[in-house]
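Q: Predict the assembly, please.
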Amino acid sequence: MTLLHRRKVVRMLLEQREGLLAVAGLGSSAWDCTDVGDHALTFPLWGAMGSASMIGMGLALAQRRRRVLVVTGDGEMLMGLGSLATIGAHHPENLSIVVLDNERYGETGMQKTHTGCGVDLASIAKACGFEEARIVRHDAELGSMRSSVYRARGPLFFQVKVKAEALPLVLPPRDGNVLRHRFREALLGGSAANR
Amino acid sequence: MSKRAISPTVQTLDWPAELHRALRSHGVRQVSYVPDAGHKRLIELCQADAEMVAVPLTSEEEGVGLAAGAWLGGERAALLMQSSGVGNCVNAFTLASNCGFPLLMFVTMRGEWGEFNPWQIPMGQATPDVLRLSGARVLRLEQAEDAGAVASAAAKLAFDGYASVALLISQRLIGTKSFEEKP
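A: Predicted assembly structure:
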């Protein structure tokens, strides 16, 4: 079976992104998002592992007319499993989570994660009450995943099985204050961002 | 006469309502919580408030992420928890300190005043230091009549100062929990 390439998956999601707001989990997921192009309305994490989904939820509740996408890795998602229950219970309709699942901790030496030992994140999300939650394995499924992320009623969860590959680093800015401020400025306008 | 000596009358003040009023007047929209008996009334007030979204969490660190996301989206959030929850938040606090996210926390204290459960004591005693080491400003609420003023000061410090602020609500004010009490 040929596995999907993570950067292709992320490019498919973030190119021509309309008004999409994005949060990128730390490590490879953040580099993948930046590879598509550093964007003020993508908030990439450099730490706070396990927080990506809840940042997405806070954003989704604050901006109910915008679509919010969290792109993160299997290791990052596993550290915040409780947030799947919190999101399922609260049910924000404009939130999607895409987990790029290479079954590895890619930044620390490619050690196997729990998803490499049979843990099925999509089933967990489904059991938590997500509107749609499934494993994505094939190119042919990417189009419908993108269209769900942009249009379908959420919360949505896609666990995309990707190849474990070491790719060139494409780094976003590291200064958290810059990342926060530029996001708010792009979303809310200059004066609101300074409030 | 000491201030404490008059407290039997003032303790009947509805201090959770004062905390709620402070959250409202500072425009807090998202209120997340892991329940604590000391937060029972404030949680109910937030749930009943049409201007607020009350979000129950499985673990307190989720609320730190939620508050960051709320701020990115132009809303203000607050996190309600018991002192034991502070320990769950430690690495998530780096979000606030690295990015300058305001973080307003109301923390009901355990393990400090007439605690009956020894397992609450280590985290309760460590709570102020853990918060300070994590970059939070720490305020205390000891007396019911101060609730509005102290909560308002905490909110102002957090949102106008882009700061991480914890208001610790004294166990003496909440009332000591005991299994002999009627629920």
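Chain B touches chain A at residues 29-30, 53, 55-59, 61-75, 77, 91-92, 94-95, 98-101 (CB under 8 Å). The domain at 29-116+148-173 of chain B is CATH 3.40.50.970 (Rossmann fold).
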